[in-house]
Each structure stands twice: as C-alpha cells, then as structure tokens.
Amino acid sequence: MRALLLGSLLALAACSDVSNGGSVAPVAETATVTHDFGELALEAAEEVASQCVQWTLGNDAPIYVNGVTLSNRGAYHHSNWFVVPEDKYPGPDGYFRCSSRGFDEVASAVAGTVIFAQSTQSQIEEQKFAAGAVIKVPPRHKVIAGVHMLNPTARPMTTDLRMSLGLVHPRDVKVVLAPFRLSYLDLHIPPHSEAHFTADCELGAAYEQAAGKPFDIKLYWVLPHYHYLGNYFRVSVIGGPNDGEVIHGIDTFNAEANGKALDPPLDLTGARGLRLTCGFGNPRDVEVGWGIGDQEMCVMLGFADSAVLMDGSAGQNRVVGVENGIVQNVGVCGKIGLPKNEAQTMPTAAEIAAPLYVPASDGGGDITPTIECEDDPGGVLPEPPTTLSSIDATVFEGTCTFSACHDSQAPAAGLDLTRNLHENLLGHRVLMAQTSMPLVRPGDPDGSWIMQLLSKCEPRDDAGTVRAHMPRNGQTLLDPAVVAKIRAWIAAGAKND
Fold first, then answer.
1. Looking at domain 1-173+346-371, does it have CATH number 2.60.120?
2. How far is CA 106 from the centre of its chain?
3. What is this structure's pTM?
4. Fold agreement between 1-173+346-371 and 176-339
5. What is the pLDDT of residues 191-209, one digit of tens each?
6. How far apart are CA 238 and CA 87, in angstroms?
7. Of all helices (H) and strands (E), which one includes residue 249?
8. How far apart are CA 120 and CA 228, in angstroms?
9. What pLDDT, on the 0 to 100 scale, is given for residue 415?
10. Spans of all domains in the chain
11. What are the contacts of 427-432 at 24+ separation with CB within 8 A?
12. Which residues, including other chains, have CB under 8 Å from residue 301's CB and lie 6 or more apart?
C-alpha cells in the first residue's frame, strides 16, 4: 500500500495585475494531495458488492477541497465517498468488508459529509467546483467509501485506485457545500421494452421545516447514476423563475464521467423542487428492478449551498401510459431534510490568517493523480487461445460492449460487437478517423486500424490527427498479452473461429 503524497504545493505570493492598473493582487494558494490505495486482484467475472476502502488523512487542521479526482484501471463499477471522524469505523487503512465495521452511507453523511461520487464504470473523473466552493474536511478525519467491484471480463485482472484532493486556502472559501440526493427506488423495467420513471420532488416544505427558512438552495454540482441499461436522464426545475429548465441531461450510457459543474450555481429560490427522470432499455426476458449486479438504479447526487442535507426518494410506482413506445411511470417522492454536521462551518479568522495547511507526507514517493498510459511494448507472448471466440469473451464482451460503446442499441462509430461479430469487424468502414486502413486486414496486423487503437496511447490517422485509443474510457491500454492475442489472430488470417 503506497502512502499519502504531498502533491503540487503552489504557495504563490503575489503578481502584477495589469488589468487593474498595475496594482498587486494576491494569487490563490492551492495544493494537491494524492493517495494510492494499492492493487486489487479480481477473478474472471468476479463481483464484490460490499467492499469498503479508507484513507486516513492525518490532518490536524481543517482542509478545504475544491476538486477531487478519482483514477482507476477498471472494475470500479461505482463508489460513494465520505469523510468521517478517524474514530468512526475503526481499523487500518485499505480495503475491508463494509459489514465488518458496520459501514453505513447515511450515517457517514451525517457524521461527516459526502466528498465524491463516481460515475458508473468511469476510470478517470474530476469533480471540480466553481471558485470558492468547497467541501470541508474537519480535523482528524478520514476518507472512506463503499465500492462496488465488478470484473466483466472472462479473465482475471488486477486494478488499482488513486484519489487526489485539490485544496484551497481558507481565505478563498466562499461557501461550504452540502450533499443533495434524489433517487427513484421503485423501478420495474418490463422485459423487451423501454421505460421512463419520473418523480416530482417538491422539496420546499421539507427544507423549510428542517432549515427554518424558505427554500433557497443553490446547486453547484449534479451527477447522474444508472447502470448499463440506462439510456436517458433528466433533472429539471419545478416552479419559480426557472420552471421547466433542464439542469442536466444525457441520452446514453457511456462509462464516462458525467458530472456537471454549475458555474454560476443554479439558484432554486422560489422554486418548489426538482423533477427526476431516468430511462432504461431492457433487452432481457425478465423484469429489471432496483439493485446492484444486473439490476438498475436511478439517482441524482448533487452538491449545494444548503442549510441542511436534502434527500428525496420515489416509491409507489405506477404506469401512466405509453408514449412513442416508451412505458411511462411515475412515483411519489418522499422528502427529508437532515441537519448538517456541526463541524461543517466556514473558516475561522485564525485559519484565514494562517498559511495554507496541507497534511504532511509520510514518505510514499511521487504519485501522479492519474495513471499514465504507455504504448504497447510489443514482443509479448499472446494469451492463448488466439481465436475470435476467445477474444470476444475476454475483451469485447467485458471491455467494449459492457460499457455500451459498441452494443446493439447505439453502437459507437456504427460498430456493433454484440452480433455478427466477424462480419462487422471485417466489413466495418472506419468513420472516426482519416485512414486508408480497414479496421481489420486479415494477415496484416500493422495494416489494421484496430491495432493502432489498441497498441498506442495516442494513435494518429493519415492526417496526423490524434484519435482516442481503445478502450476509449481507459487510462491505459489493454494488457500486452491481450493486445498480442488480437495481433496474433489477425496475423493468422482473422478467421471466424
């Protein structure tokens, strides 16, 4: 387990502000701390639904976090991150079974606060707030997360995880943010159909009761959460001057970072609440409901300038009709406002007057916030067998179609890897690059565009334009033995075996 690193401390003094007649203006002091949680091995198709992980910061003073970056090599299906006092869930840092320490997400949010949530299957994600907006980590707190692990491939894998916290000086803090969540829990997605689920969460009354003042939340960050079957997300305003405004929307599932920063923040003063809609396409023979694994979720996590922690959850689902072939469902939204932890306050005068505080390094060495990509080294023995059926099971199904890039619903670049695999690979016309290469040229790996995408971090087309390597959402390339496996298959004639 590698340790905490004091990253890039930029304790800058002052600079000349030319636009202000040459007057001297202070430059914001910032720092980054990065932690590597170490490697974790998963068997083929292994799923671990109740994994937890923690990082003790050792901070003797408060720190103020304006940005969080989470970086991993895959298999992190989703994760929810909190900061809590060091004595809560006692035990050593690293991975552990959540149940062994009684970890609970709601209790963690109340005892400390939420600090980050990961988009489904994202491998690199930055949560960056508007200037002056922060999450406060009080003294002697630790970072802890509930993590859902899933290796979707038919081969063992080793992954790792890093987290970076971007710190700002207390004098630059304008608002300490609070978490905000909406969920649609009563999902019933019929087999072989598309369905939308909508809940109107009129939060005003619950907020006023808990906060003792009218609804005046200001939203700074919105993150959608659903799984592989999700194909639609909308959150919009109900009532007030922004009635009907869509705050955030996506129309697919792509295993990418889908959080949205609102800068300036959206002022909900005068509104009644928010409308949440999630849509799903279910190609299976059975109904899909709420849950992990092959089930679905519908959640919006936000961060807001709010006097209380707000949570809304929809139940009592009922079908209200069919529009354009999509089954329309509505639910009843229950609302609750919870008091923020007493430590979630603005910086004190003493903090503002003091130098920027950064938790001390314990000598872990240099750790970059992200995992660096390296070109395939070549010369590695291919993982056997070098057949298309094995490549499909070990690469395409888990890496290329599970993240919905090349599935049958909305195949990226028109390449569907879920059916007619051999025909589609050899007959595909490359659309996303200017190249004379076909995707696969039997007997000629170096003349196959797919090998450029799989073996180089920055593949270049004939025009010299850098294109995204594959897997698209991966920070690194595939295991060299797997790249060699695909190369050997093409070299042997790219047979349908």
1. yes
2. 20
3. 0.89
4. yes
5. 999 999 999 999 999 999 9
6. 41
7. strand 246-250
8. 8
9. 86
10. 1-173+346-371, 176-339, 388-491
11. 432/467
12. 80, 114, 117, 179, 180, 181, 222, 223, 225
Contact 300, 276 (CB under 8 A): yes
The domain made up of 176-339 is a member of CATH 2.60.120.230: yes
From CA 273, how far away is CA 205, in angstroms rounded?
Answer: 9
pLDDT tens by residue, 436-459: 999 999 999 999 999 999 999 999
CB-CB contact of 317 with 336 (8 Å): no
Cα of 180 vs its chain's centroid, Å: 16
Confidence of residue 341 (pLDDT cuts 50, 70, 90): very high
Residue pair 69/129 in contact (Cβ under 8 Å)? The answer is no
Q: Measuring CA to CA, how many Å separate 140 from each of 58, 92, 106? A: 6, 15, 20
Tokens (6 digits) for 273: 């609440």
Q: pLDDT, tens digit, for every residue of 96-130? A: 999 999 999 999 999 999 999 999 989 999 999 99
The DSSP code for 373 is P
Distances (CA, A) of 12 to 33, 96, 167, 348, 360: 17, 40, 14, 22, 19
**Alpha-carbon gap, residue 127 to 106, rounded angstroms:** 21
- What is the chain's mean pLDDT, rounded? 90
Place of tokens 């004098």: 171
Number of neighbouring beta carbons within 10 Å of residue 360:
13
Q: Are 215 and 228 in contact (CB under 8 A)?
A: no
In the block, residue with structure tokens 């959206």: 266
Q: How far apart are CA 300 and CA 182, in angstroms?
A: 5
Cα separation, 57 vs 53, in Å, equals: 13
Find where tokens 């955030």 sit.
248
Q: Is 268 helix (H, G, I), strand (E, B) or coil?
A: coil
List, for residues 296-340, the tens digit of each pLDDT value. Answer: 999 999 999 999 999 999 999 999 999 999 999 999 999 999 999
- Kindly tell me the number of DSSP H helices and DSSP E strands found in the chain: 8, 26
- Rounded Cα distance between 463 and 4, Å, is 43
The pair of three-digit structure tokens given for residue 479, joined into one six-digit string:
């295991």
